[in-house]
Amino acid sequence: MKTISHPGLSFRDYLKIPERYGKAPYFWLLSFVIFGWKYIYVAPSLKELGWLLLTLLVFMPLYLISFRIRGRIHLGMILIICLFGIVWAPYNYGGSTFCIFAASMCSRIEPTKRAYACLAILCLIIMIASYAMKLESFFWIPALIFGISSGISAIIGERLLQSKEHLLRKQEEVEHLAALAERERIARDMHDLLGHNLSVITLKAELARKLFDRDSEACKQEIIDIERTARQALAEVRHAISGYRETGLVYEIQNARQVMEAAQVVMETEIESFPMPPAVENIFALTLREAMTNIIRHAHASQCKVSLRQQDTQSVLHISDNGIAAQKEIRKGSGLTGMSERASALGGSLTIHTDQGMHLILSLPAERAT
């Protein structure tokens, strides 16, 4: 059996009962009233008083330290305290108190089977010693009855305390994972929001630069659009940070038309109208936003098509373009990964393939959207 101690603790720290046990172990010491009951009627001799003080001076440190020590040393402490009770039994039947303390100390033995085995061995020692020393029943009956009940109660209480601590650790772990998931959600939202809006701002800034010398009115209009897009981006970032966003699919479709028009990309839409919960609409809206951003940045397309319809048991968003995606392998960046994760969370799927351009298909269960 391995001995477990707590490095870095001073001796004074060892004499403090861990906070996990509360104040109860200190109140248990009141049971020494049983041991001192004899001296209410019979005054102890000086010799007996000296042995009594010496016993208590040895018992108290052993009892307090036993809450922090495990292994062979802990077993030795249990045996010593039990022997205190047996040695005192011929002179004071209240020595059974020491045996009861020894029995309760078995609760801190691991695993549980070994704790019960130690308690059984302790009871066997008490019975053998009582028979061999012909001790009165006033000693061994309380020592066994209260020792067994106290030992079993202490073992059960210790395991319940350990289960509670284990549950608290699991709860802390869940909270930590929830915090990580929230950070990932915010990171995805920031990518979706800022990536799209900054692409629009960049595109319009390039147009404004080109129009600066030849069409001041058109240049002015582009600058106004840049300001509007920047303000909208700021508002959406604030909403995303608070965990709430209400742009909606209709807004994203309108915004996509404006962006495609500015990028000189012809956009066709086939949108079926059907009710859908906010979570589903949000996924469709964010997917459309990310797809439009990719078309502007990478596809160099002249046409794109967006369709949303219900197909058997699925609600399907299909976005396609005639760009150059077919000429190179599409690598999933953080935006596409975020789309896929959102779809999976609702039991859907995201498919991307290249055939005369890029085709993005987002499918969600129809029951989620009805």
Give the gist of this structure:
By secondary structure, this protein is α+β, with helices and mostly antiparallel strands. Helices cover 64% and strands 10% of the residues.
Secondary-structure map with pairings?
Layout: H1 11-14, H2 24-28, H3 32-36, H4 38-41, H5 46-65, H6 72-88, H7 96-105, H8 112-132, H9 137-211, H10 216-241, H11 248-262, E1 266-271, H12 278-299, E2 303-311, E3 314-321, H13 334-345, E4 349-354, E5 358-365
Parallel strand pairs: 1-2
Antiparallel strand pairs: 2-3, 3-5, 4-5
Write down the overall geometry.
rod-shaped
What distance lies between the first and last C-alpha atoms, to the nearest angstrom? 62 Å
Number of strands: 5
Helical content class: 55-70%
**Segments where pLDDT lies below 50 for 5+ residues?**
none
Largest sheet data: 5 strands, mixed
Strand order of the largest sheet: 1-2-3-5-4
Keywords:
single chain; 370 residues; alpha+beta; 13 helices; 5 strands
Word description of this protein:
With 370 residues, the protein is of the alpha+beta class. The chain folds into two domains: 11-175, no CATH class; 265-370, Histidine kinase-like ATPase, C-terminal domain (Heat Shock Protein 90, 2-Layer Sandwich), CATH 3.30.565.10. It has 13 helices and five strands. Helix 12 (278-299) links the parallel strand 1 and strand 2 (303-311). The radius of gyration is 38 Å and the shape is rod-shaped. It starts with 10 loop residues before the first helix and ends in a 5-residue tail after the last strand. The model has no long low-confidence stretch (mean pLDDT 81).
